[in-house]
Amino acid sequence: MIFEKTVFFPLIISLITTSTALLMLAVSYLKMLKKHNLLLKEEGRLKLHQHKKEAEILEEARQKAAKIIADAHLVDDNAQNEVQEQLKTLSLNKIKDFEKTSTDLFRVYKQELEDLKLNTLKIVNNITKDIENDTIKELKDFKEILKKETYASQKIVEQKIEQQYAETEKEIEAYKEDRIKKVEDEIYNILQNVSKLVLGKAISLQDHEQLVIDALNKIKEEKVL
Amino acid sequence: MNNITYACSNILKSTKTVAQKEQLAQEVDQLTASLFRQETNAFDNALKSIRLEISQIIIDEFLNEEPKGVNKEMVKYFLTELKKRLQNLRVIKLSIAFSPSNHSIDRIYDWIAKNVGDEYILDIQVDKSILAGLTISLEGKYIDLSLKKTLDEVFKNKRQEIIRNF
Q1: Which of A3, A117, A167, B112 has the greatest number of C-beta atoms within 10 Å?
Q2: Which positions in chain A touch B111 (Cβ < 8 Å)?
Q3: Is residue A193 less than 8 Å (CB to CB) from chain B?
């Protein structure tokens, strides 16, 4: 299939634009994926760090408690129980705080991820929409150019056909006239020859003589000699 | 002298064509030559060798009046005169479409003699292509009164009509 220059170059430009947009989209997507992975890793790291911190706080609390117990071996059982109770309460409160903090953090990260996802999707959608619009516009332009080119080519072909047709018609007419003239000439010659043959044979000697004398009389009348 | 003129006219009347003229010229030459021969009957023998109608005219005009023999000088003069008049004959060329009989030649000659002049002889050519009628050539003039010409003119002038009717 052979394209005209005016069609080929817009097509190539359209293809290049589309390819570039797709490439940009792919690169952007890859970047976001990488960022997402980094965030997931960060989340894991923070969770680990939080657990470690919790364990350290618990250990510290336990050591402090043990020290207090050791230091206060003389304290009575009630006081000991009370301390134990308070420690337990403190631990529970701390655990609750940590749990709350952890839940909050998780929610915040989740929200961030959701927002990121939505933004990414929005960007991707926008890019897709732009590409679609560009492509539609390019295709529309291409179609328009192709239509114009086709129409122009059709017009030229039509003109050429009409011209050729007129010339051929003219040639046929000339040929027809020539053939008719030839046929007429042949008919004429045949008629003339036949007439001569018939007349030549039909005239008797006496008639010949008389025709000669008549001709001579005609000469005399016209005073030619 | 009158006899000579009369005899010449008589002989020339029977000379109507170029062929007859040539034949007569040969006969005159034969007779003239015989006059110079030494033989006694040379002229008589020569007379016998030519056409009867010619020899008869000569006998009637010259020998009957000369019982003692031929007056050679008179005959010589006659033959010279005849030859001279023969050479002065003018030729009218005719083309006709048929082989003419003597009757045809006579009719044509008589017409020419009466209407054009008796100093003419006929040079007749047979040309069947003219179909009928004749063509005449005389002293640079050419007249075509053939049927072929008439037919050609008809075909030329009424070409379209002929083609249409055909």
Answers
A1: B112
A2: 213, 216
A3: no
Residues A95, A180 within the same domain: no
CB contact under 8 A, A208 and B145: no
- Based on the domain organization, do A203 and A100 belong to the same domain? no
- ipTM > 0.90 (yes/no): no
In chain B, where the domains are located: 2-88, 90-159
Q: How far apart are CA A62 and CA B162, in angstroms?
A: 146
Q: Which of B143, B148, B156, B160 to mutate to test the interface with A (most CBs of A within 10 A)?
A: B143
Looking at residue A210, the DSSP 8-state letter turns out to be: H
Distance from CA of A196 to the nearest CA of B (A): 7
A125 shares a domain with A217: no
Are A212 and B143 inside 8 Å of each other by CB?
no
Q: What residues make up the domain containing A202?
A: 176-222
On whether any CB of chain B is under 8 Å from the CB of A191, the answer is yes
Tell me the C-alpha distance between A219 and B154, whole Å.
20
- A118, A59 contact by CB (below 8 A): no
What's the confidence (pLDDT) of residue B41?
A: 84
Interface A-B: count of C-beta contacts within 8 A? 76
Rg (Cα) of chain A, in Å, rounded? 58
| Per-residue pLDDT reduced to its tens digit, B52-81 | 988 888 888 777 655 556 677 888 888 999
Sheet (strand B90-96) strand order: B120-126, B90-96, B133-138, B141-146
Shared-domain flag, residues A165 and A185: no
Give the predicted TM-score (pTM) of the model. 0.51
